[in-house]
Amino acid sequence: MSLTNKILMIRPTSFSYNHETAVNNHYQKKTDIEDFSAISKKVTSEFDEFKLALERNGIHVYCFEEIPSLRTPDSLFPNNWISTHKDGFLFLYPMFAENRRRERRQDIIDFFVKKNQYSKIIDIASLYEKKNEFLEGTGSMVLDRFNKIVYAAISDRTHISPLSYFCKKINFELISFHASQKFEEGEQLIYHTNVMMSLCENFVIICLESIKNEIERKKILESFNKTGKQIIDISYDQVKKFCGNVLELKSNDSGNILAMSTAAYNAFSVSQKGIIKNFCKIVHSPLENIEKYGGGGARCMIAEIFFKPIKN
Length: 312
Prior knowledge:
By secondary structure, the protein is an alpha/beta fold. It is 31% helix and 23% strand.
């Protein structure tokens, strides 16, 4: 599996509750708070602490400040609008919430294009948003970059047409399925694949009970077996604590790390932590307000950066 030690993060300075995303992100806690100034400061503090923890563990963070005038309450989740790939691809993705589409910043795109000369910029957003079909980057897709497989849970944020288009462009196999979970509103599709699944170099964290269709579940398990992944099966309750919303990164120092929130760390069982620690170091940081009001966790805050290999 291809890992990176370079990531993009967007530092939030005017975080607020996003009512447009709350309609199908059931991990966001409903709130009637009008003045988010105090919570916004806590969110910025959580971000800074998490970023510092990653940097202390050998991760290079390309950090951009949120632009308040854009009015993008979820700007700290950049993995939904951009992804980069070693073969020179840079993808831009169609997003469900209209106010999130303003997150696609030309200055950030230009920075990475200039730095690495991405030769293939694929703007999926311009093709599919007008059709109301969406694919929210590595929130919608969990990528096995080494084996060239896309795992994707179909939802209001993840449609089959842009998925197929992405896979065709990058020559990846698509394994799509449906995942759901019970909330106060009843059984609901899980809005992003990376909430219930994280693919790592030697293991996979996944909520298998969320995949109700036996045929779909069997196909996924066969793929994990074929690609040599040890399975850490998490529960619904662990999904709600963002145990699936974690990301393995390659440290500059030594070995790999698994980035997660402190809530996720505390929710993993001792035996599950033991499996993880066999392969990588766990790095966790408190993200309580980000998870509560943003409905996303550690993985959502990170867009992996892959540069084309330098030719000698």
